[in-house]
Amino acid sequence: MKNLWIVGAGGFGRELFFWLKHSPENGVNWNIAGFVDDPLVEKGIKGNPIEKYLKTYNLKLKAFEDEKWTDKDIFVIGIGQPLLKEKVINKMIKQGVQFLTFMHPSAIIGEFVEIGYGSVICPNCIITCDVNIGKFVTINIGSTVGHDCKIGDFTVISGNCDITGNCKLGQKVFLGTHANLNPGTIIEDGATVGAGSFAIGKVKKEKVVLGVPARKWMI
Questions:
Q1: Which H or E run contains 91?
Q2: pLDDT tens-digit profile of 68-96?
Q3: What is the dihedral of CA 178, 170, 11, 20, to 10 degrees?
Q4: Sheet of 138-139: strands edge to edge?
Q5: For the chain, what is the radius of gyration of the CA atoms?
Q6: Distance in angstroms (rounded) separating the CA atoms of residues 148 and 163
Q7: Contact indicator for 132, 155 with CB cutoff of 8 Å
């Protein structure tokens, strides 16, 4: 039996908590032990039912670094921001901890799909065929990934996104909810496609695009 720790106690981390409760095995038996995050009070969770029985560590505190984690402890990533996710994971990797690759049982995973270590596939997602998903990728509720797509490490795909065939997403990409990608679209490292947007062609590195069709966001 593993002690499973959820990294991130914000909105997505708490959603993940309930999905994990309904998926008790997923290839490994676990006991949900708690959250790893800043103090829960900072998350507006004071008084939430989960507070009553889950211990929380603070990544900023030396106490977490001093904890004697063993091979009975395993961590799942509940952070929905690519850059923060990368920073936290790299810190934890140095401590030699193990990460869970989680696929909710309602997700449909097709043939010849590779899903990288530490990634999280949420309820009702569809990943069709011949897809390569990198490490520590998040694909949120109801999103679809078409044939021959490639998704880079630490990327976050929000709920109800439609990534059509032959799309290529770099590392640390963020897609807002209901973002759609035209077939063959390329999203370079660190770029953002805003909620409800429709991206065509190529979105360059670290750019933010919005709209239909998606264009560079001018502040």
A1: helix 82-93
A2: 778 889 999 999 999 999 988 988 888 88
A3: 100
A4: 102-103, 120-121, 138-139, 156-157, 174-175, 192-193, 208-210, 215-216
A5: 17
A6: 11
A7: no
Locate 115 and state its tokens.
């899903």
Q: How far is it, in rounded angstroms, from Cα 7 to Cα 155?
A: 16
| Residue 143, token pair as written in the block | 């999103």
pLDDT digits (tens, 9 = 90+) for 165-184: 999 999 999 999 999 999 99
Tokens of 209: 């695009």
Q: How far apart are CA 75 and CA 96, in angstroms?
A: 11
Residue with tokens 């966001």: 217
User: Considering the chain, what is the average pLDDT of its residues?
Assistant: 88
- What's the one-letter identity of residue 139? I
Nearest Cα to Cα of residue 165 among 150, 151, 184, 179: 184
Per the CB < 8 A criterion, the answer to whether 116 and 133 are in contact is yes
The tokens for 14 are 């708490």
Token pair listed for 124: 């009702």
Amino acid at site 15: E
Q: What are phi and psi of 62, to 5 degrees?
A: -65, -20
What whole-number distance in Å separates Cα of residue 158 and Cα of residue 149? 17
